Amino acid sequence: MVAIFLLPILLAASQVKITAPGPHVAHRPGVFNPAREDRLDSYWRRAQQEDYRSPEELAAQIERDKRRGRQIPLLMRGNPREKIIALTFDDGPHPETTRALLAILAKEKVKATFFVIGFMVERDPDLVHAEALEGHEIGNHTFSHVTLTHLPTHEARTEYRACSDLIKSITGKYPAFCRPPGGDYDARVVRAGRDVGMTTVLWTDDPGDYADPGTGVIAQRTLDRLSNGGIVLLHDGAKQTLLVLPQIIEHAKKKGFRFVRVSELESSATARLVR
Ligand SMILES: [Zn+2]
Q1: Residues of 100-136 as b/e, b for ≥16 C-beta within 10 angstroms?
Q2: CB neighbours of 28 closer than 8 A, spacing ≥ 6?
Q3: In whole angstroms, what is the distance from residue 254 CA to residue 197 CA?
Q4: Is 251 a member of any domain?
Q5: Strands 84-90 and 258-259, how do they pair?
Q6: C-alpha angle 79-82-85 in degrees, rounded to nearest 5
Q7: Is residue 1 part of a domain?
Q8: Where do the TM regions start and end (predicted)?
Q9: Is 235 a catalytic residue?
């Protein structure tokens, strides 16, 4: 009798959905399998199909906004008279690549900026701690890597805030910079970042490493476009990038470039639009 009464309760309990950790997030758009590994895999499947705006498209959008008299405060390039470059790594931390990436950067004595995703940070907080400890800058790439232009402003703000709170809980510091997934931004998205105390950062160079085009292609695309004040978009999680990164860094150093974090690049920026 008891067993019959208990059965429906046990059945109901076995069907309870395990929700992913993340007390910071009131709203979590996107559909993720609650099993952590599956979440990671589905994320990477989507990341590989990601359609990033090209630097030319971004520059054209900025020009259009300027012509319409809209001043959208964002950072796309540092001082074009200084031989400085910011390497930025999106979409981490990643259990298979972050440590190796940190080892390369340490060996090359290069400081970079990591635009991390909240749900990846929750999964591997130690990796973000290690990044910060080694002097790299941590930026915000939203909590669940959604296209922010598709969200109402308050939800875009929630995406950024959830990721910032998480970063602060690990590094002790709120991030000063954010990057919208895919580079999809508009005035509302940039304002949402500002509301959470961040400047939106885009890029001047996207070698497309997330699509695994081959190490030679990544190296050539990156080196062909090296330019003063440049911001290079790379990915933490792209294995080909690990293979080719030392070559890219050494080549750039030979050409006289110095690698800086985004905050150093911003402090010398002249191309930043008016706040
Ligand atoms: Zn991304």
Answers
A1: bbbebbeebebbbbbbbbbbbbbbbbebbbebbeeeb
A2: 22, 143, 144
A3: 36
A4: yes
A5: parallel
A6: 80
A7: no
A8: none
A9: yes
Q: How far is the CA of 211 from the centre of ligand 1 (A)?
A: 12
Residue 259 structural domain:
46-267
**Residue 27 appears among annotated catalytic residues:** no
The pLDDT value given to residue 7: 39
Under DSSP, is residue 48 helix (H, G, I), strand (E, B) or coil?
helix
Average pLDDT, the chain: 83
Please report which confidence band the pLDDT of residue 97 belongs to, taking 50, 70 and 90 as the band edges. very high
Write the pLDDT tens digit of every residue in 21-65. 333 333 333 333 334 444 455 555 555 555 677 888 888 888 888
The reported pLDDT for the residue numbered 27 is 30
Q: In whole angstroms, what is the distance from residue 124 CA to residue 93 CA?
A: 7
Q: Which of 205, 209, 235, 236 is catalytic?
A: 235
In the DSSP assignment, the letter for residue 20 is P
> Which of the four pLDDT bands, split at 50, 70 and 90, describes residue 158?
very high
The number of folded domains in the chain is: 1
Q: Tell me if 162 sits within 8 A of 125, measured CB to CB.
A: no
182-201 core/surface letters (b: 16 or more CB in 10 A; e: else):
bbebbebbbebbbebebbbb
Q: Is the dihedral of CA 140, 146, 150, 155 positive or negative?
A: negative
Domain membership flag for residue 213: yes
SS3 26: coil
What CATH code is carried by the domain that includes residue 237? 3.20.20.370
In a domain, 14, yes or no: no
Give percent of the chain above pLDDT 70: 79
